[in-house]
Amino acid sequence: MIAPAKAVPIALTIGEPAGIGPDLVPQAWEALRGELDFVLLGDPSHLPAGTAFECVDSAADAARVMPNAVPVLRMDFDAPRHPGQAVAAHAPHVIEAIARAVALVQAGEASAICTAPIHKKALKDGAGFAFPGHTEYLAHLAGASDVVMMLACEELRVVPATIHIPIHDVPTRLTRESLEQTIRITHADLQSRFGIAAPRIAVAGLNPHAGEGGAMGMEEIEMIAPLLDDLRAQGLDIQGPLPADTMFHPAARARYDVAICMYHDQALIPIKTLDFDRGVNVTLGLPFIRTSPDHGTAFDIAGSGWANPSSLIAALRMAAQMAKATA
Predict the structure, then answer these.
(1) Which one, 73, 112, 264, 323, has the greatest CB density within 10 A?
(2) What is the pTM of this model?
(3) Model confidence over 275-307: pLDDT tens digits?
(4) Distance, CA of 29 to CA of 109 (rounded, Å)
(5) Same-domain status, 15 and 105
(6) Cβ neighbourhood burial of 121 (10 Å; 0-12, 13-18, 19+)
(7) One domain, residues 190 and 316
(8) Sign of torsion, CA 78 67 301 281?
(9) Domain of 303: which CATH number?
């Protein structure tokens, strides 16, 4: 069983060095060093000038170092950092840092993984990276066949049942089997990772007004509602299918622990509206905890000092909370 985050550190990967990941690390350390422990996997020379850091031999040293400096499991990348300009030579090391973080958490030497943003094209160009992104690579390393993306903040948790596909493909990609798998994985992880014994799940309809009795689409009648009826009969606490336009005001949010949405923007618009700076990306269905800030590499402001660390801080805090609930 994994120990609480204070005893076993979170493994934080540095992400794409040309992005804002390295800029955020010392800010996150300053905000969290009295609260939780993390250990950075990356090249310390990529951190902003003046960052207090100490290279450590093992993740176990993080607790000793964290009060005074960023603990770093040193990885020597083959090129210096050029903010805003991806370097092909970095790609193999960025991938290695992710794999090393997985090895740490699988060995019980880290309580969770938090990943700074990567740049998919840079990894593909520099190392032939064959995965669409972090999530798929982590699933591959973990041997997980099905994973789910959750976006979370203090006010809301949302799960899109389909993610990065064109809107015209959603009705055909959204099947009874895929939706059921998404709901079951979400339900299981809310219990095991978030400590919610009886999760309350709200499920959105696909069409306006949840189809309005078939007047605006038949997916709710033909597939979504029958599935939810079956799951309710098995004891799951599920509402829906609900009109998406009435699901996200405060009184509605108080009635559920997570909202399952049918497509990307249906899920992400409400959470980004509620808390744009502190949203956290959580991968459900993995055999370990993984969080990430809900933003990209932001090449345009890398190295400028303008990057907002709020999402990374929230991601590290959520990883620690999940590790504590899991322990």
Answers:
(1) 112
(2) 0.94
(3) 999 999 999 999 999 999 999 999 999 999 999
(4) 19
(5) yes
(6) exposed
(7) no
(8) positive
(9) 3.40.718.10
